[in-house]
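Interim report, section 4.2 (structural modelling).
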Amino acid sequence: MHQLISDLKVKIVDILNLEDVSPEDIDEAAPLFGEGLGLDSLDALELVVLVEKDYGIKITDIEVGRQAFASVNTLARFILEKQGK
Amino acid sequence: MSSSMVISLFGYIDATGWGGKEGSHRWDQSQGQLAQALRWRMVSGSAHDRFGRMDLLSKYVSVAVEMLGLPLLGKQDLRLDTTMVMGTMAGCYGADLDFYRGIFQGDGPSPTMFAYTLPTIALGEVAIRHRLGGASYCFMAGADSGLLALWESVKLLEAGECQKCVCIMADVLPQHAEMIARNIDPAGKALTEYAYAFLLERHGHAQACEHPALARVAITSDADGTDSIESWKVPDSLIGLLRQGRPGRLDLASPPASGIKEILSIIRCSPVI
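Predicted structure of the assembly:
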């Protein structure tokens, strides 16, 4: 879980081109959207593509996505759950 | 002569650097290619979460408008009295080509890249940041684009459609300029990377708000006796005038009925208000 969280932080910074934000700056419990990291709907699309491409998990249900992308912690738990770990 | 408008603020980013009324900054040449070196923290002390993901056109337009120095508003406030007009020869052509290439590479282009395959997105980014709730217009009219934006800005103000107008002239084609320059500009003039922004106001409005008149722009029918300049040179000429810090005046000749290209090829520039 800890390694996955670290990997996700690196990927989020990289794929979203977050200037002046390092992976270490991201609080894994903080909201990804709105407050917290301040991501928006376009970033959400990028993250959906990231999860599908890198982890083989398709997110087709909006409510499932909303819960999964609440924070880095919830996203990591969602991925592990879908991978059956 | 009809009513004139004044330019009370300006901002720019080009090959020399970036700046506005409050001063200029030069590129640090040791940073390598200018466009790739551009970071928001270089130009502003306030955060901009989306800047990193923008295409180059949106980045340049965002920087130029930031250099106007408009105060940032709260999320509940809107500038409803301000409209935006942008003129660009190539728009987001660079992002279009990147997206097209992405279709044939790996997992395909990213959703973000797709979002920036419209030139109006640059205006959207500016509107969100500066809470600009008025109308916005984007003109792609070849070599006349910058002048057309200026012309339309004046016309909108004259018509009372807005109190203030942010007029933007921008083009960024770092990798593709040579390839498509002839398609955009028949004369084959080299395109460079730049974005210029001007805040235009009615003269009376600027006076009432105690905004200084850095330059005056007028649509006129009697501009004889001044030197005519080609329309594609308008962005450089205008920003050059403002960067020199001396008051200037641009007279746009009245439009004949024969079409926009002929209209806009007639511009006259004189140095003193």
